[in-house]
Design goal:
single chain, about 240 residues, mainly alpha
């Protein structure tokens, strides 16, 4: 294994994770007014509605699908489904939602680049982020034909073992990818890089989405109306 692969797949994942977590925390502490999605819906809503829905549908499924698929040890699902069957399921479902997400991000990118009003209010980071996401979807879809050449699930098991070793801080993770096709490696590198830029872009609003789940556990809010005939309290002596 060369030094570049060792750095990208053995050291860079921890750099990306550290920047992702510490950067998000520092931004929340120091610049909360920028913690928002910066929606441009008021400027033009039509294309945004379709593109945003398709993009979010695709990216959320793929994020949780990748997380569960890569981080679940083989022995936990082996009694129910083989590695080859799991890979085929991932190819079909990932391909479907990948196409939906790709169409969505393409619509958002087109809107951001070619709508004069949207372009005038766009930050450089907005455009670069959409380009990164577009490329990431494209690379992900490009891995599907390659996966069809090894339907036994052998490559998928190597990728999953790499991810599990990284997360559990075990060594010798990078050598597992020595013979993996460059498309898979580029897809993984770009995915980690998105985590690096996460704290410096509008992506930070994703944290708020997860935090909103806390509302499910909050007690009910009691609201009393004057129309119920309750007398309003007045200061003594009036």
């Amino acid at each position: 294994m060369n030094a570049i692969d060792h750095f990208v797949f053995g050291i860079y994942p921890y750099i990306a994770l550290a920047v992702f977590l510490l950067g998000s925390l520092l931004r929340f502490e120091r610049d909360q007014y920028s913690w928002k999605s910066d929606s441009s819906q008021l400027l033009r809503a039509g294309q945004l509605r379709i593109g945003s829905n398709l993009f979010h549908l695709g990216v959320l499924f793929l994020f949780f699908g990748h997380s569960v698929g890569m981080l679940t040890p083989h022995f936990m699902y082996e009694p129910f489904i083989t590695a080859g069957q799991k890979q085929l399921l991932a190819m079909i479902s990932g391909g479907l939602f990948g196409v939906l997400g790709f169409i969505g991000v393409s619509l958002l990118l087109h809107r951001r680049l070619f709508d004069v009003r949207i372009r005038a209010t766009s930050k450089t980071s907005d455009i670069m982020l959409l380009l990164l996401l577009w490329l990431q979807f494209a690379l992900g879809l490009a891995t599907i034909p390659l996966s069809a050449h090894h339907l036994d699930g052998s490559v998928m098991l190597k990728l999953a073992e790499w991810a599990q070793r990284i997360v559990t801080l075990r060594g010798e993770a990078a050598p597992l990818l020595s013979d993996i096709d460059w498309v898979f490696k580029a897809h993984m590198f770009l995915g980690m890089s998105i985590f690096v830029v996460f704290p410096f872009t509008r992506l930070v609003h994703v944290w708020s989405g997860f935090a909103s789940l806390a509302y499910l556990a909050r007690p009910y809010q009691l609201v009393r109306s004057r129309r119920l005939g309750l007398k309003a309290r007045t200061p003594h002596g009036e």
